[in-house]
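## tool: complex_structure
## caller: assistant
## args:
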Amino acid sequence: MEFNLSAESKLMIKAARDFAEQTIEPIAAKIDGDDAIPDDLLPKFAKAKMLGMMIPKEYGGTGSTALNMILITEELAKTASAVYWSMALNNSVAETICHWGSDDQKELFIPPLCDGSNYAAMAFTEPATGSDPAAITSTAHSDDDYYVLNGTKRFITNGQRKGYGIFYAKDETEKVTAFVVDKSSDGYTCSKPWALMGLGGQGLVDVFLKNVRVPKANILGEKGKGFNVLLRWIAGERVQQMAFMLGMGQACLEESLKYAKERIVKGRPMTHMQGFQWMLSEMHASIEACRWWTYRVASKQDEGDEIQVDSAALKLFIVPTIQEVARKALQIHGSYGYCKNYKIERLYRTIAHAGVTGSSTEIQKTLVGSYLARP
Amino acid sequence: MDIVICIKEVPETTEVPWDPEKGILIREGIPGILNPNDKNAIEAALQLTEKYGGVVTAISMGPAQTDDALREALSLGVDNAVLLTGRHLAGADTLATSYTLYLAVKKIGRFDIVLCGKESADGVTAQVGPQLAEFLDIPQLTYATNIEIVKGNFVRIKQKLEDGFRELESPLPALITVEREINNPRIPPMDHIMEAYRDKQVMVWTADDLGGQMERFGLKGSPTQCLKVYTQRIKKGKMQILEGDGSMVAKELVQILRKRNLT
Ligand SMILES: Cc1cc2nc3c(=O)[nH]c(=O)nc-3n(C[C@H](O)[C@H](O)[C@H](O)COP(=O)(O)OP(=O)(O)OC[C@H]3O[C@@H](n4cnc5c(N)ncnc54)[C@H](O)[C@@H]3O)c2cc1C
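## result:
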């Protein structure tokens, strides 16, 4: 059992930390407040070679591992900025296309995701359902060499930004198929972004598909087997999202320590009070548990193991654990923590997202529970 | 424009144990980082070679783990890396260090500029660069906040002094030490980090490879005698600010000092 990170991974962590501190952190509050990510930010990720971490070099990727993706995520997460999701989606969508796509699809769709000229999107949620993809109502009708897509997708990150997205719709056999859709197609329109509690700049829109013509060559994976594409993507994305939570949890602890060491209570720094020491130690222990389990699941992913159940169990553990870390961090900050001047306020709001996105914490319980109870 | 840069790995924390016998840091097992100031030297070298062409070679003296500092230099874009290591080199003070670096630079042979950080974060002497220039018998231009190549084979720097700046010019080859503010070091891209560890080589030279006199290396070659090592305790006391007319305040101050037997 090897618990040491390689020197290469450690240098990647350092590079990601420097990138986060120099490129994101100085504008993170502004991105959140303005609800807008500057256009030049994704190309900066591309230059740092962070957009195709798990993609072979021949398609413009970095050729690294799921574990290294998780390690750099942890560092980027400390900024609690929505820009992470643009980076994460380009990574996970490129990886999905790399896994399921034909050679032509890989050559066409992956390089623009790695070079930062395109924003990926992954669209499964609809107004009537997020947790039950079988209830999808978007349709795809065959017409010559094309499928014609109709329907509404809800809460689509980067639905309005230039590039390709993977969209799920039911074909004439009522089965769900995954399509790679050009977001500048005729008939493709978007709502204004939803105003979110946190993650300002996320660009979460509804997408309206009205007779959008998609070449049959853009079917990803097998026709009628879109669920396979979706479930595999969600499993990998869960691990990345948990690394995002882990990094934010670590930032909560670091902010709390900084604050508590300076804040004087009864003539001494708060850190002298046992009550606060206990809070800090519980936060630390929780984060360590989350960290090593996340690394473990990412390593399994690299070994080619199935991670559906592992990633679900990971999420159902980490979401409430890091939310409790954030709650403690807010308590330590007192009323200052409730003010926008303090970073903990942004961390707290951002950490709240994880239980209801991707797939909810309850769904993870169903997944793990049904696995354990299998005959 | 061939450049040799001297870089050092320093402990990541400020709480490093000391060996009271030898008066040196016990570095084993302490995670190291590339000396922050040396990142500026690397960046300066890369900017110069990007403009004028040439080869950048990084050298570092230290234990085997110094390999990581050199890999980082490679990931940033340095062409060659040389590790100077082995038991004969251990325990060196600034004199033995600059002697060792001098032999290494000599062995590399071709260079127009030798670049060093102004100082290391752990030793903070700012001596190695100037001493190395003396050994090499080339001009030294210290505390640079800007470097320009002028008239083909002259270098001009803006030197930071305590109370201002001055411009210095010298023919090449020359040695330059750089300040933190000279540039903003780049961050290595992920693929270059992988290449640095997988595809590139760090050459390893020991005292035997360098030639030179054995008694001038490492602890043996270090005349610096460290008598005692201790952590300065900063006493905290009450602060008193005297306000009012200057001459009155001065009198009051003298009285206070007298009362405490401090005059
Ligand atoms: C910041 C953000 C980014 C997002 N990005 C995207 C995106 O890029 N693409 C995309 O497609 N979607 C995206 N979403 C949408 C998100 O993934 C869905 O909203 C989420 O999957 C939950 O779906 P829902 O809101 O329809 O909840 P519902 O499915 O209506 O569920 C409501 C509640 O009921 C519970 N529940 C539902 N079914 C079950 C069950 N079978 N057993 C137990 N409990 C159940 C859920 O856990 C939940 O708590 C994003 C959302 C947010 C907030």
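## assistant note: The radius of gyration of chain A is 21 Å. The longest strand of chain A covers residues 146-157. Handing back to user.
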